[in-house]
User: Fold this.
Amino acid sequence: MKSLYDISAPAKLNLFLHITGRRSDGYHLLQSVFMLIDWCDTLHFDLRDDGQISREDLSTPLPADDLITRAAHALKLASNTALGAHIGIEKSIPAQAGMGGGSSDAASTLLALNRLWRLNFSLEKLIQIGLQLGADVPFFLGGHNAWVEGIGEKMTPINLPPGQFLVVKPNEGLETKLIFSDPDMKRNSETAIISGFAADAFGFGRNDLQSVAERLCPPVTQALKWLDTQGLKGRMTGSGSAVFAHVLHHIDLPSAPSACQVRLCNRLDDHPLVGWASSDRLSVGSF
Assistant:
């Protein structure tokens, strides 16, 4: 049965990820480009007039206090609404992949419930709530591919060239905190500039977490080697176990290597829910 809102929550790829330093509070400083792709979760929202938040896992079971539930309760608390919602979740984006699936779900939840409950919160107010849920949530709320700096809170929306990407996710996941706490992780990359990235958008830089990730999770190395056998140059996205490669020409989707998911993905221009909350601040820069 169709819900009142049936919406998408897209994943992202980090085209590169450089760690440029570390603050006194322990947070790492980074530079990256976050790119939306068409590997999506689907969320279904129905209104409840009893004020309760209920959740139904339609595919992969989720933890009781996952980011979707936390986002719904955070928005309810911030708005003091008497309304509630029932949320059905069809998970497709794998966990611990570095693809932002949980953060994307949280952002889509905030945008959908803002409309379902007729709160009319601005995008900036939703971003303030989202930042308390996770560092990547504001990116998905912003709705555009972005150059990202600071600890992930400084975003400059950008336009990217069209592109297809072969994404490989080993069944084994990788926890972010294990990588960032590793003493061998590179933390002193030189600061990059957007114009340098623009000269080679899909080949620029590297992922500074990759060498540590390969040591902690050998399937990452195996996935990268498999991409190499397909004639593709791969790298890790984010701080999870997924890797990807830019596809320069037509490719038939190859059979997945053992214990991996493989998907051919397209870059998205914008988030499917862009414009669901009003904003007068964000603008898109182009190369």
